[in-house]
Specification:
Rossmann fold; 7-stranded mixed β-sheet; 7 strands; binds S-adenosylmethionine
Length: 237
């Protein structure tokens, strides 16, 4: 499966990696931490479940899964940016989270067998993948019957009275602060651009359904600044 933006996106995340966590906390006013916690608390897996975290970045989702789901759960994090993975590795070592293994790889060509995982997560990653339908179909294949996919993604709030203020912040202030701290000329302009290109929730839910998922829900977080999409792979009869 191709992803034409791939080298551009990988290089961008590689160069912002050192400041990525700091800027996440600062620019989201710590909401990114709250959203990941919510995503993981919506996950239902067995005590010794296996989870794949796609586009794992610096490892925050993988570590949250270990914190919430206990010592028997095994998490595999995959990302195509060596810079992000290097930071994830350091954090995992510091937190003594041996249940997490990290792999370098592309979300569109994952090296796993079918029906391997009880859950697949992707936080703030799917918006960077052009072929969303292809990625979701692959996630479905890697899930065991009865498993679930959880997709956390930023969104543009629709009917909130805070919409105008938020959009001014997101499209004007955030790129400036991001550029200042990350020293990257366009990564934090790419962020609002890529969010504005992301399909509307009902369209994305339809893409999930076409990939095979059922029981699809969308939870609006923080007045619709982020959405958590959850879908299930039907259990075998
Ligand atoms: C915005 S960061 C999110 C990181 C992490 N999930 C989090 O919660 O902070 C997006 C991540 O997706 C990774 N990524 C984007 N496209 C990818 C692809 N096609 N395959 C693997 N990783 C990808 C980037 O390298 C980056 O680490």
């Amino acid at each position: 499966m191709e992803n034409r933006e791939l080298p551009f996106v990988r290089e961008m995340f590689d160069s912002i990696a050192p400041r990525y966590d700091l800027l996440n906390r600062l620019l989201s006013l710590h909401q990114d931490v709250v959203w990941r916690k919510k995503m993981v608390s919506a996950m239902v897996i067995p005590e010794n479940g296996r989870v794949l975290d796609v586009a794992c970045g610096t490892g925050d989702v993988a570590m949250e899964i270990c914190r919430q789901k206990g010592p028997l759960v095994k998490v595999t994090g995959i990302d195509f940016s060596p810079g992000m993975l290097g930071l994830a590795q350091k954090k995992i070592r510091r937190q003594e989270a041996p249940a997490i293994s990290l792999l370098a790889g592309n979300a569109l060509a994952l090296p796993f067998g079918e029906q391997t995982f009880h859950a697949v997560t992707i936080a703030f990653g799917i918006r960077n993948i052009q072929n969303k339908a292809g990625a979701l179909k692959a996630f479905y294949q890697y899930l065991k019957p009865g498993g679930m996919v959880l997709v956390l993604e930023l969104a543009s709030p629709k009917q909130s009275c805070l919409r105008d203020a938020y959009m001014a912040y997101f499209q004007r202030v955030l790129p400036l602060v991001g550029r200042l701290f990350s020293k990257h000329s366009f990564a934090y302009s790419y962020l609002p651009d890529s969010v504005s290109r992301f399909p509307a929730p009902d369209v994305f839910m339809k893409i999930m359904a076409e990939a095979g998922f059922s029981r699809i829900t969308c939870h609006r977080l923080t007045l619709g600044i982020a959405n958590l999409f959850v879908g299930g792979r039907a259990a075998e009869k």
